[in-house]
Amino acid sequence: MLAYLTNIWRIRHFWLALVRNDLRSRYRRSLFGLGWSLLQPVATTIVLCAVFAQVFGVGYRDYAPFLLIGLTFWGFITTVINHGCQTFLVGESYIRQHRVPLAIYPLRTTLSAGYHFLIGLSVAAVLIWCLKGVGSLPALAGLVPALVLLMIFGWSLAVCTGVLNVLFHDTQHLLEILLQILFYMTPIIYPPSVLGGRNLGWAVQFNPLAVMIELIRPPLLEGRLPTPQIVGLSLLVTLATLGVAAAMLKWCERRLVFYL
């Protein structure tokens, strides 16, 4: 594993160039450029906040940042999964011509999604500081390891979905349906207590995405670090996903090209 990661780092100029090309092609000849990636979560936050803040009985000052963080997190997860399904198919020409670690192609997808994720979180942080003031600096510093954990989790998801979609081309369509279901089972637009009060707390307790989102909400919204239980569960979820991704890569590292 160490030799594999070292090899990935050795060719970092290659996959970093792929990430730059992805970002440039996305905003080429675009009038607002990066603003388009921010417009969707901000506009969705405004619309949903106007409706659901009253439904859940939460003030706009509290609900708007809560919702924006949730939508930003969900945008990262859906991008990693949906684009991860295509990551090996998009990189087919490189895979056929150059023998490099296959993990760099899901890494390319994750870094592109992570770039927009960080910008979205920055906007959410500015909104929170404007509404509530600057929170605890040690808690904000705790976001750094949380973001690293989320990036590893996203990278692992992209590997898994990419391999599965090459082997079974229906994977992406099935995942789109699954993501629609998970969106409503994950506390993105509602507080976790809403389901708990309706005997549906299991939908949050056994949902790994509900655990991962709690890595970033408390430091930003409440100025405190995530609880040890959340950190432990998040680490367990990430290691489990990473283990599955590593097993898939070990199996298909030399076989995948024959399925493309």
Characterise this structure.
- It contains 14 helices and no strands.
- The model has no long low-confidence stretch (mean pLDDT 86).
- The longest helix is centred in the first third of the chain and has 31 residues, at 60-90.
- It has 260 residues and is mostly helical.
- The chain is 78% helix and 0% strand.
- It has one domain (34-258).
What would you say about this model in short?
By secondary structure, this protein is mainly alpha-helical. It contains 14 helices and no strands.
Tags for this model:
260 residues; mainly alpha; 14 helices; globular
Average of pLDDT: 86
Helical content stands at over 70%
State the distance separating the first and last CA atoms: 25 Å
Structural class: mainly alpha
Number of strands: 0
Cα-based radius of gyration, to the nearest Å: 19 Å
Shape: globular
Q: What proportion of the residues form beta strands (DSSP E)?
A: under 5%
Give the number of domains.
Answer: 1
The helix/strand order is: HHHHHHHHHHHHHH
Profile the largest sheet: none
Outline the low-pLDDT stretches.
none
| Number of helical stretches of at least 4 residues | 14
